[in-house]
Write a structure and sequence with these properties.
Blueprint lengths: L8 H5 L11 H8 L8 E4 L6 H8 L3 E6 L8 E3 L13 E5 L6 H11 L3 E6 L4 H8 L4 E5 L6 E2 L2 E2 L11 E6 L7 E4 L10
Parallel strand pairs: 1-2, 1-4, 2-3, 4-5, 6-10
Antiparallel strand pairs: 5-9, 6-9, 7-8
Helix pairs in contact: 2-3
């Protein structure tokens, strides 16, 4: 079992500005097309401003949105994913863009819940991501271009600049049939922010 060390208390008790990168619709569209038909209910546990939750609703899914924001947007409940233990999510899948600085902790918590999940994470090959595939049967959905996140100051891809890192969806119990599934991400798709 991957047991990451939790950050200091204040770090997991409130949202961190450096982690406020919202997910564009096209990144959610990629995962929406891969969600198994047996999944009807989604838990977006790091909802932020609600981009993923609202896009999944647009795709027809029932979504429980939660976050640790002091003033969450409409239809978002307060839940600290890393500390609180929800018992009302049996039968759900977890789909989220976890805070960048807590992605390993979010992964470990998803493993603990033992629900299907998809985490949008940076595309590194650290030991824990290798073990996610090797020990836990995770699979990756990898777009062929970088995802440009929505930052507090605007879109990361504006003015010809792109995200500093490549991202992919790390999934479990999505039964994709291979450890890496590559998907095309066109310029036209990237207009759907």
């Amino acid at each position: 079992m991957i047991k990451p060390r939790l950050p200091q208390k204040g770090i997991v008790d409130k949202a961190q500005p450096r982690d406020n990168f919202q997910t564009p619709n096209y990144a959610t569209d990629i995962i929406a097309s891969k969600i198994p038909e047996s999944i009807d209910y989604i838990w977006e546990c790091a909802s932020g401003q609600g981009k993923i939750a609202n896009r999944l609703r647009w795709h027809g899914f029932n979504v429980l949105a939660s976050d640790i924001l002091e003033n969450p947007p409409d239809r978002t409940t307060y839940t600290n994913f890393l500390i609180d233990k929800r018992t009302d999510v049996k039968g759900y899948a977890i789909i989220t863009n976890p805070p960048y600085s807590l992605k390993k902790q979010f992964f470990a918590k998803c493993i603990e819940y033992d629900l299907p999940f998809a985490l949008l994470i940076s595309g590194d090959y650290s030991l824990w991501t290798i073990d996610a595939v090797r020990k836990y049967g995770c699979e990756k959905i990898i777009p062929d271009h970088r995802i440009d996140y929505i930052t507090p100051t605007g879109l990361s891809g504006e003015s010809g600049h792109t995200s500093y890192f490549h991202s992919y969806w790390l999934t479990r119990y999505f039964y994709l049939g291979q450890t890496e599934t590559f998907v095309t991400l066109t310029k036209e798709m990237k207009k759907n922010i």
